[in-house]
Amino acid sequence: MFTILFSENEKELVRKETMKAKMIRKQREAAKELFRCCFPTVMRLFEYIKQEDHRLLSCLLQAIEAHVLLTKVCGRVKRERKAMPLFTVHDSISITESNRSYLEGVVKEECLRLTGYAPKVEGNLLHPSKLGFPHKEAA
Q1: Among 4, 78, 86, 97, which residue's beta carbon has the most beta carbons within 10 A?
Q2: Closest Cα to residue 72, out of 119, 122, 124?
Q3: Chain segment 10-50, per-residue pLDDT in tens
Q4: Angle of helix 40-50 relative to helix 56-66, nearest 10 degrees?
């Protein structure tokens, strides 16, 4: 009974979802083509890596990112500023605000040294309300 009453609405919904999927696919293909034009050698390498298992490239890139951040950046910080508080969560490094410009410089320098490119580094202030556990406000 439901299908009979609402089948036209369902068809319209499916049509809209299909159009949305096509639009997303076109945008993704346009981005790939732009990347291929700008970095043809890198794109060929990425396509080669993804031939056997499409998940392999993302795993490799995550491993490289972890190596750069944890081994190179954090390792250098610990050598240069032993007492500096430093915590890592996934691909983020948490520090005190007073060490922000120092860490941004280390990240840029290490990435430049390792890859030839200095990344754009963005910092976010961590507020207790975003931590997910109860806290007391300062009196």
Answers
A1: 86
A2: 119
A3: 677 777 778 888 899 999 999 999 999 999 999 999 999 99
A4: 110
